[in-house]
Amino acid sequence: MSGTRKPGQRATPAGAPGGMQLFDRDGSRKYLTVAERARFLRAAEQAPREARTLCMTLAWSGCRLSEALALTADRVDLAGGVLVFATLKKRQDGIYRAVPVPPSLLEALDLVHGIREAQRRRGRGSAARLWPWSRMTGWRAVHAVMDAAGLSGPAASPKGLRHAFGVAAVSSGIPLNMVQKWLGHAQLSTTAIYADAVGAEEQDIARKMWE
């Protein structure tokens, strides 16, 4: 990145496609912290059921909003404990990735969207989209929960949840190549940007030693 960087603003790692950054030009974070993501999930518990499951899916899988909205019942692997997403940023179709998610999310998806019932039908639910919404409807649902959680700014967005997943994964010691796989990045250099953000989370990491 050219020019002077504001305090707290990170440079783009070499080779990061499209110059992806975790801070905007004003030095504001574009990702939610661990505490902010927890606030978001608590607020989601009070949202309408379909909005709640969408918010949980975004937070716990790191998928793109468009990938969540394309999710069908047959790609919810209850036995394997994963969600299978079509990676929509790839240049060719038919690229999928399996992302492990908490049992609580799988239970919520089954309760709200009837996953087991759909999978017993012909096609195993391949035509049953969990959220038959437009991208704008999904975006509004997420932002309503962000508002309820008292979150604002660049981080209060579906993309902020995706970045939060990457930062949380790297902070937890997940290998970069695994985070790359879960997020569906074509290049490891894109995923490496989350390692640069860990410095901003060091206080939270250090606090775990004090408690």
TrEMBL record:
Pfam families: Phage_integrase
InterPro entries named in the record: DNA_brk_join_enz, Integrase-like_cat_sf, Integrase_catalytic, Tyrosine_recombinase_XerCD
Spans annotated as Disordered: 1-24
Residue span, Tyr recombinase domain: 27-207
Gene Ontology biological process: DNA integration; DNA recombination
Keywords tagged on the record: DNA integration, DNA recombination, DNA-binding
An example Gene Ontology molecular-function term: DNA binding
Positions in coiled-coil regions: none
Family of this protein: Belongs to the 'phage' integrase family.
This protein's name: Integrase
